[in-house]
Specification:
homodimer, about 250 residues, alpha+beta, Alpha-Beta Plaits, 2 domains, ten-stranded mixed β-sheet, globular
Chain lengths: ~250, ~250
């Protein structure tokens, strides 16, 4: 009997061409599929909840695969971790109904974007936090973010033009000073954004555009105009991949 | 007129053979001295407050050097950062009296040791946080740490045997769950330890020995016995360098 196995996975995306297996370059799902082949002898197809871009990190990626293997479910994390490079770790494994699909069954995807807002970059967080040296007005950015909440046509914030269905619903978009005690950094701004799904590059374009509000280059109400323009050129450049992390997936 | 310049420096120690310049391998001070040579044309001798070991990080190292250069004091951070690799950053520069010596004038050195205490390691923090999968009793470790506070002969915790003056004074040694929000990790234990100076490998040996208390292999009172033994063999193995970070120096 085939089994459907769900994995909870974390990775540092720095050295990968994103999640999704491609023909040639090293990807996270390709690396996991190779480890699964080594373990089970099966060429499985791993379905990830989110196709994170090149350089984006994950601490709560979910993926599933169908297998005939008789390996005990609980053995997958230690066995896979012994085969994987140190920048990918499998935390949990669980048998799920055959109908479960990591991508299509997902109800909510939660991402975080971190910014280090001080004059010089930090050598300790450079792989995970984007450095922005200029002053940012947190309150203005929060005001701008309100226009993005709820259901909208997000064409202006998508790198895929035209998209056959550019309507998305943002359930949460918080902006706050992150707790500084853990690594001593005192000027970290955390964006957290949750939606059932996102358009390509949508989060990084949203953060980049809100930074213009924070820099007082855009009024907060400009966000509403950009949404209504339905034109990628009206929004700002996206922020770098390294500050983005897939936090968790809810089903 | 020569000037004495004090620098505030952060670095990721992963790829360096420690702070102190040696004949051959790449060190943090050697790399900084090369950048200073490129900038000023002078072969300066950079004095660091703490000679951090190979692989140890710093977010608040202090160093000074004497120069005849006429470069404006404020120009050092941006000029040096443009010459340095990304894993070393100079945050501040300041002219100080010629009598100031980063190492001998230091009144307090504050270090932090981070432990990720959960079943699997994290790919996102593996360079900065040591992974310990077994359960640790925080209260027992705190109790054991009390014996180390104040002035003692720390021979048992030093890798330099015999040391001509093994007496040191620990002003603070706190152990707590670190704030988890910044990188989503929920099981980080933070050791913070402050003293005017430390013996070689003293902090990592102290943390390693306290972990034995946390694992219930040693009673907290065993720490007192280890101190009194004045014998390196009585303490435990030191913990890995990657979890250690020089937080700040007070003058």
């Amino acid at each position: 009997m085939p089994k459907n196995i769900k994995l909870l996975i974390a990775y540092e995306g720095t050295d990968y061409h994103g999640w999704q297996r491609q023909s040639d370059p090293k990807t996270v799902s390709g690396t996991l599929e190779e480890a699964l082949f080594e373990l089970t002898g099966e060429k499985v197809s791993l379905v990830g909840a989110s196709r994170t871009d090149s350089g984006v990190h994950a601490q709560g990626q979910v993926a599933n695969f169908i297998t005939q293997s008789k390996i005990s479910i609980k053995a997958y994390p230690p066995a896979l971790n012994s085969l994987l490079p140190r920048d990918i770790v499998v935390y949990e494994s669980q048998e799920v109904p055959l109908s479960f699909h990591a991508r299509y069954s997902a109800k909510l995807r939660i991402y975080r974007y971190l910014i280090l807002n001080k004059p010089y970059p930090s050598p300790l967080s450079r792989r995970f936090i984007t450095h922005i040296p200029y002053n940012l007005d947190l309150e203005l950015m929060k005001e701008g973010a309100k226009y993005l909440l709820g259901t909208h046509d997000f064409t202006s914030f998508s790198s895929c033009q035209p998209h056959q269905n550019p309507v998305r619903t943002i359930d949460r978009l918080s902006i706050e000073k992150a707790c500084p005690r853990e690594n001593g950094e005192v000027s970290i701004i955390k964006f957290e954004i949750a939606a059932q799904s996102f358009l390509p590059h949508m989060i990084r374009t949203i953060v980049g555009t809100l930074l213009k509000v924070g820099k007082r280059k855009f009024l907060p109400s400009k966000i509403k105009e950009i949404l209504e323009a339905r034109n990628r050129a009206s929004a700002s450049q996206g922020v770098p991949a390294c500050g983005l992390c897939l936090v968790s997936i809810e089903y």
